[in-house]
Each structure stands twice: as C-alpha cells, then as structure tokens.
Amino acid sequence: MKYYLETYGCQMNEADSEVVASILENSGLIRTEDPKEADIILVNSCAVRENAEKRALARLSQYKGYKKDPEVMLGLLGCVPARKQDQLLEKYPFIDIIMGPDSYRELKKVLSENQYPISNTELSNQELYDNIEPKRQEGLNAWISIMRGCNQFCSYCIVPFTRGRERSRPFESIINEAREIAYQSIPQITLLGQNVNAYKYKDYRFPDVLEGVAQVDEIRRIRFMSPHPKDFTDRMLEVMKKYDNICNHIHLPLQSGSSKILSAMNRTYTKEDYLELVNKIKSILPDIALTTDIIVGFPGETDEDFKDTLDVMDQVGFDNAFMFQYSPRPGTSAAKHLEDNIPYDTKNARLQKIIKKQHTATQKKNQELVGERIEVLIEGTSKKREDELVGRTESDKLVILKAGQGNIGEFMDVKIIGTAGVSLFGEIPAKSED
Ligand code: 5AD
Ligand code: SF4
C-alpha cells in the first residue's frame, strides 16, 4: 500500500508530517510522490488564515476525483480538522480520515479499520510524539519539536484552539535526538515550538535547551522558531553569544507597532518594550539578523496605528518580514468581540505599503553585504535555473552561485558580488584572494 502526503502551513506542520510518515511507514506503507499511485492521500492542513484553510480544502476536493477507485482513501490532517471538527463531514462527506494534530497515533488503525470515516480531533495535554522517530525527508535540516501547543491566546490566533495547551518535551530526549541527528551528519537543527521561550521541563528552560543542543559536536547550525518577545530573557542572548553554531538570526514576531493594537491583540508588550528588546539584542549581538511577522488591518487599526508599525519597521530595519492582512478566525476572542471593520481596500493598501517598504529595507541590507565573504550552506540547484546553485547564510539569506562551484550539503566561503531582488549573488573567491 502506498501513501501520498502533502503539507501546508508552518514548520510545525512540516515536523508533524515527518511523524505521520514515520507512523505510516512503521505500519508497512510506502511513500509515493504521485497522488495517482496512492491508496491513501493525506493533506496536512493549516487554519491560521482563511486563505490557508481554503487552499487545503480545495486541494482535497481536487483529490476527490481519485476516489473513482473505491479503495482509495482521502484524509485531512492538522489544524483544519481541529478547528472545524464535525462540520467537515457535512460539507465534505467524501473524506475518510479526519485527524487533528494530537491524534496521529490513531493512523495505525487506518490499515485495520473497516468502518469509515474515522475521525479524531481531540486535543491532548500530553501528546509529544516523544518516542516516534520522525521520518526526515531532507538531509540538511532536522526539525526538533521541543514543545507543542500555546497558552498565549493572542486574540487573533487560532493556534491555541487547534493545537491545545503548552507542553514541553523532556530535556534529555531533545539532546538525544540532537545527538542522533549529528550522527546522521545532518548539519542543521531547527528547534520548534509555538513559543519556544515558554519551554518548561523540570528546571530546564529554553536557554538550557539551546545550550545543550549547541554543545552537541558536529551540529554546525542551530535555528529556533519562534520566540515571543515577552519571554525573551538575557540568558538567551548570553547563550547565543557564547556558541558560534547558534545562527545569528532571530525571528521576533512584532504583529503591530501600535501599543493600542498590541494590547487588543493580547500580545502583552508595548511598542516601547519591543524597541527596547531590539536595542538590547543589537547591543549584545551586533551582527544579528532580525526577521518578523506583521499583521495589518486588525480591528480598530487607524492610520496613526499603522504609522506606528511603519515607524517600528524603520527603527528596527528588519532583514525580512512575513506580512499578512488580518483574517478573522471564528472562535478566537478577536472574531467574537471585535468587528472586522477595516475595509479590504485599506487592508490591502497597508499590506502593499509594508511589503514595498520591507523590500527596500532588505535590498539595502543586502547591498551592504556586497564585497563581504560569508559562509554559505549549499542547499540545492535553483528551481528556476539549472545552471545555478542556491545556498543560505547563517542569517537566513539566500545566495545564488554558478553551478559547479560547490556540492549540496557543503559549507563554502563565498564572496558576495551582487544582489538580485531579495537574494544575493556570490562566487567562490580565487585562491589568490585567500
Ligand atoms: N490573521 C492574519 N494573520 C495571522 N497570523 C496569525 N493569525 C492570523 C490571523 N488571524 C499571522 C501572525 C503569525 C503568523 C504565523 O501568522 O503574524 O505570527
Ligand atoms: Fe498564536 Fe500568539 Fe500563540 Fe503565536 S504566541 S501561536 S501568535 S497565540
């Protein structure tokens, strides 16, 4: 029997899909990259914005055609089932398997069950998939999920409802997994959690995890996603400074630059707190690359509020940003209590404005790197051009090189020779320049 698995959404979903793959393969299924060949077609979905949800459901409807063969089973996994639960089967009666993020162990049943649909969207306070070794698909980065769930309840966010309460993996188990990854010669680890700074296991906190993983020999790059600004401690910065293999990059979600909107979002920090934290980070880690997430058009966002967001962008100078229009998520406190009162055109105009601003800032930052020599991990051949390789700097910037200048998985000392949009062009310096 063959399964096909497609993943939408955040890195946590990517990591979960590796757990799903492991469970299925341990039950004897074989992966296929062609849905036409599959006996089981699974879509791991994201519910963070309405568009993401629509995309996953549209995909599933597309696969309905493959069910002409009655043996073929269709499954929806992840955050959409956790949010929609029973309503799903009413609207999409052709789905055979419905599993929320905490129910993947039940997939074992898929092979033995003969009563469909099977559905489990219950959330757990304990599930960590701790004893399941993820089936990793790529050789250069290993996700380690260190905690699951979220207790923050930002007013716009569906995650606490789809992924349940915070729980942290045992410290020793994380370090053992990091050692195993090093043994497999995977050069990069990304530690994942909805809010990694909320990690709490016995007396261990996130800086202990970061330090413990940094001490594992052979791990060349360590990344983490995402820390909440309110929980960012000095100890984190000390650990980041102490270990060269922790990447000089922090993804620090801003969401809004207006203290009024931040309060309505229940972010529990103000514009000033955020800027103060950024200044502290920059003073301890002067070369740090900062990236962020921003939402525009949250209920009640005035032009003045939006100007605060622009102002924070100017003051911080983010290296990159993921930017979104507010999308009300049924069940969240913002959707319940605040009217989605910013017209689409205003939301869109604000979004376009920050995208343009960020583009200019990214280009300016990239220009400053021209002439520098930077370590790049070669990740693969460019999707657009076969005669180009793409690699990544420690600060998470893409670098394009001519093919033949290095091999996938190699760390190269690259000279930056130019910029292309938001990417960099590099070359391997001639020996005489060494
Ligand atoms: N509308 C728009 N963007 C959202 N995000 C989370 N919830 C929403 C929403 N309801 C964004 C936040 C978060 C990122 C993963 O998605 O910026 O950091
Ligand atoms: Fe959502 Fe906020 Fe939790 Fe992030 S910290 S997952 S934005 S509730």
Q: Can you list the ligands bound to this structure? A: 5'-deoxyadenosine, iron/sulfur cluster
Q: What's the N-to-C terminus distance?
A: 55 Å
Strand sequence of the main sheet, in spatial order? 2-1-3-4-5-6
| Structural class by sheet pairing and helices | alpha/beta
**Number of domains as seen in the coordinates:** 4
CATH superfamily of the largest domain: Methylthiotransferase, N-terminal domain
How many beta-strand runs?
A: 21
CATH topology of the largest domain: Rossmann fold
Judging by the overall fold, what is the CATH architecture of the largest domain?
3-Layer(aba) Sandwich
Radius of gyration: 22 Å
Q: State the name of the first-level CATH class of the largest domain.
A: Alpha Beta
**Major beta sheet, specifics?**
6 strands, parallel
What do these coordinates show?
By secondary structure, the protein is of the alpha/beta class. It folds into four domains: 2-120, 3-Layer(aba) Sandwich (Rossmann fold), CATH 3.40.50; 138-247, Transcription Regulator spoIIAA, CATH 3.30.750.210; 254-368, Transcription Regulator spoIIAA (2-Layer Sandwich), CATH 3.30.750.200; 373-433, Beta Barrel (OB fold (Dihydrolipoamide Acetyltransferase, E2P)). The chain is built from 13 helices and 21 strands. The protein has a six-stranded parallel beta sheet with strand order 2-1-3-4-5-6, sandwiched between helices. A five-stranded mixed β-barrel has the order 17-18-19-21-20. Helix 11 (303-316) links the parallel strand 15 and strand 16. Helix 7 packs parallel to helix 8 (234-242) and helix 10 (271-284) packs parallel to helix 11. It is globular and about 65 Å long. The N and C termini lie far apart (55 Å). Bound molecules: 5'-deoxyadenosine and iron/sulfur cluster. The site of 5'-deoxyadenosine has 12 residues, from strand 15. Residues 150, 152-154, 157, 159-160, 194-195, 228 line the site of iron/sulfur cluster (SF4).
